[in-house]
Amino acid sequence: MYQKYYRHFLQAAQKAAPATCDLPVLHMACHSHHYWPDVTLEAINAYWQDAAQMADSKWEKIFGEKIPAFQRGIAAALNLPAPQQIALAPNTHELVYRLISALDLNKPLRILTTDGEFYSFSRQLLRLEELPNVDVVRIATRPFATLPQRFEQELQSGNYQLAYASQVFFDSGVAFPNLLELAARKPDATQMVIDGYHAFFARPTDLSAIADKVFYTAGSYKYFGAGEGMCFMTIPRDCQLRPLNTGWFAEMAELENRAEGVGFGNNWLRFAGATMDYSPLYKALAVLDLYEREGITVASIHKYVLGNQRRFLAAMDAADHPLLNRGNLIAHDLENGHGHFFTFRCGSAENAETLQAELRQKNVLCDRRQQLLRLGFALYHPEEETFERLFT
Ligand SMILES: Cc1ncc(COP(=O)(O)O)c(C=O)c1O
């Protein structure tokens, strides 16, 4: 009875929150905390064993074998030419802030972004904006159809040191139309970050054409399913930036100018931080191994989730729900331009809270942000799930 994908997530599925009704738990907050496949439990144990048996010498294994294996896996998933350019950190904030620290904060600093960025960046930006020399322009994400033109026009004309945009917006699930194409045309003087967190291991993404142009960030907590603590940022190969916020792990690089001042290596270690827990790395490698063994790719994950989303929409259209309906669904192009969750405008935070509680009574778990209720789709939703229980 176990499905081809669901069977890899049994431990998380069986331990899911206590039942409030007879139906099995339908976990639809996978766009936030995605279940971890069962293989990750053994991976945590393996990390403990390595720490116990190898003590300090575990670092050689981590830096010599584990990190390069992870970088190769990420590079393969995103079609990146240079795995050694993938910098690791426990969260994307650390990496993005390290990049910002490499910009000249003594000069006017112009930053272009959208009004749909996740708090990790948007809060940091608000604080930076308190500095007299920092000027931020936020392009409205809506209407989504004209977002690429509006963003690119500003990017090309505005003399920006930094541009930052999400590939899929966290508050709507809408994919930024043609973002990778417009990033390829960005001015050389502008550093550009693509926040790929809501696309990574959800939407097939080929970065080969912009690998040496943009910084791409994502992490393992969401669709990748390896939990918190393993994030990355890809670094253009010719990057000569010198982060002010530099960690001592960068000392492991072949430093370009050891004799004078602080040297930086010409690979990911330019953006390296400091001591961290690498058990999430072991979990991430276990996920990569599992997916390789089972032939699970980002394309097959996306195809499977699209099937779930179509069944959900069919059930929704056949029902007459006061909140979960097309009128309240935020979307641009559901078939081609969407991430792996749907967002519904509920009119007020109270409505969203009530709806979330009603769904909880039916053993459907989801999340909300103010008046927005988000319902996510994942590999571990059974193939025969109709989603009808949400609408009755
Ligand atoms: C779009 C986006 N970017 C980044 C993050 C995570 O940020 P950080 O790794 O800094 O905690 C999230 C988390 O939900 C997100 O939705």
UniProtKB/TrEMBL annotation:
Name used for this protein in its record: Aminotransferase class V-fold PLP-dependent enzyme
Gene3D superfamilies xref list: Aspartate Aminotransferase, domain 1, Type I PLP-dependent aspartate aminotransferase-like (Major domain)
SUPFAM superfamilies: PLP-dependent transferases
UniProt xrefs under InterPro entries: PyrdxlP-dep_Trfase, PyrdxlP-dep_Trfase_major, PyrdxlP-dep_Trfase_small
Highest taxon of the lineage: Bacteria
UniProt organism field: Microbulbifer harenosus
Taxonomic lineage of the native organism: Bacteria, Pseudomonadati, Pseudomonadota, Gammaproteobacteria, Cellvibrionales
